[in-house]
Specification:
This protein is of the alpha+beta class and 206 residues long. Helices cover 13% and strands 29% of the residues. The protein has a single domain, classed as Jelly Rolls (Sandwich).
Length: 206
């Protein structure tokens, strides 16, 4: 995951979209298992990240499909153009932190809902103010995805939080994902070498 988030293919595009140098904010796996993967209410990522001391929404994410994403297995839904609404207040609703239901209801009436059906390996870039949600996975197939998130270097948080302040991101080329002996120069720790990783047995890398 650490290597994927540093590849030119992702980072260069994010820097183009956000207009300057970015650094890695965080990554996470979305694991929607068959018939049990839960739904996520409409929200903006900046609705969360605003509380971490980021003054501007100069932030974005790249969602990479691990499994095929369809309506049946709870693919991501986005409201087209909703990032232009600015930051929406977020609060607790149905056990989750979501965007103001009143504004979401109006946005749903006025904006197009796009179901992001994706083949494995497809990447979707989106702004931190884009309203997005996902339905429950009612299918017999899993929907896993990797999300790599970035903050503009100029948007360095003014206070500490559980997310990082600016730390220069050392980019790598795509083939670093399958090469051995790669080191994370920003943290000094070793990444797992594919040849010695028992969890990757039987997995074909293409």
């Amino acid at each position: 995951m650490g290597i994927v988030a540093r590849t030119h293919r992702i980072v260069d595009r994010m820097e183009m979209f956000l207009g300057g140098e970015v650094y890695h904010y965080h990554s996470k796996m979305i694991l929607k298992e068959p018939r049990v993967g839960g739904a996520w209410e409409w929200h903006q990522d900046y609705g969360y990240w605003y509380q971490n001391g980021c003054l501007y929404p100069d932030m974005g994410s790249c969602l990479i499909a691990i499994d095929e994403a369809t309506r049946e297995n709870g693919c991501l839904q986005v409201l087209k153009g909703s990032h232009r609404m600015g930051r929406i207040e977020h609060g607790r609703s149905a056990g989750q932190t979501g965007a103001d239901p009143e504004r979401v209801a109006v946005a749903l009436e006025r904006l197009e809902t796009v179901f992001c059906e994706m083949k494995p390996g497809t990447g979707l870039f989106f702004h931190s103010n884009l309203l997005h949600a996902s339905a429950q996975n009612t299918s017999p197939r899993a929907r896993w995805a990797l999300i790599c998130c970035y903050n503009a270097a100029r948007n360095n948080p003014y206070k500490d939080s559980h997310h990082p302040r600016y730390n220069r991101l050392d980019k790598v080329f795509d083939d670093a994902i399958v090469k051995t002996g790669i080191r994370a120069t920003d943290s000094g720790s070793d990444f797992v070498e594919p040849a010695g990783d028992k969890t990757s047995e039987g997995v074909k890398v293409s």
